[in-house]
């Protein structure tokens, strides 16, 4: 559907307001937007960290007697996570009958970013009990929980976390971001475990190098 593609692209460009205009144009033409359109709109709001807009769109679905699907709910959770609104993310998560890996990843990130460590640990335990494959944001939450428990530097927590992992490209990227300005230590671990740097890993190194000392700040991890 053309509208869905256009709205999704605007979301990737963080032009959520323009995406909203497209919805209004559909309504003026007396066209009933499909659930996919709303999913794309909520996704655009998520990328723009517009949590209020995302929640309003979910309410609009109820008004139109449309059932919000997992795509809509997960995107709304992501919007709350990016806006650092853990309470709203948890409320949405609780409304899901069978939350998937994306929902868990979003709510775990939301709690970790808000330093709600006990709830983060509980959700991580549930996540692993369900046998989900950990995502980038879940791994970051694991490192932050370890940092809080050990009261150590972020890079120290990242190295301790890596020692318990089977390093691959995804985990190596997490390790580099976790080490921040200490990224050469991540390279040393990769050399020991025979993980060759890839373009993605180099991109992660570039991000922390450009961030400088700020790369050691936990808030920088989520960008």
Beta-strand content estimate = under 5%
What is the helix/strand order?
HHHHHHHHHHHHH
What is the count of helical runs?
13
Give the fraction of residues assigned to helices: 55-70%
Low-confidence stretches: none
In the CATH hierarchy, what is the class of the largest domain?
A: Mainly Alpha
Layout: helices, strands, pairs:
Blueprint: H1 2-12, H2 16-28, H3 35-47, H4 51-63, H5 70-82, H6 86-94, H7 101-113, H8 117-129, H9 136-150, H10 154-162, H11 169-179, H12 183-192, H13 199-211
Give structural notes:
Helix 6 (86-94) runs antiparallel to helix 7, helix 9 (136-150) packs across helix 11 (169-179) and helix 11 packs parallel to helix 13. 70% of the residues lie in helices and 0% in strands. The radius of gyration is 19 Å and the shape is elongated. It has helices at 2-12, 16-28, 35-47, 51-63, 70-82, 86-94, 101-113, 117-129, 136-150, 154-162, 169-179, 183-192, 199-211. It starts with a helix and ends in a 12-residue tail after the last helix. It contains 13 helices and no strands. It folds into 2 domains: 1-113, Tetratricopeptide repeat domain (Serine Threonine Protein Phosphatase 5, Tetratricopeptide repeat); 134-223, no CATH class. The protein has 223 residues and is an all-alpha fold. The model has no long low-confidence stretch (mean pLDDT 83).
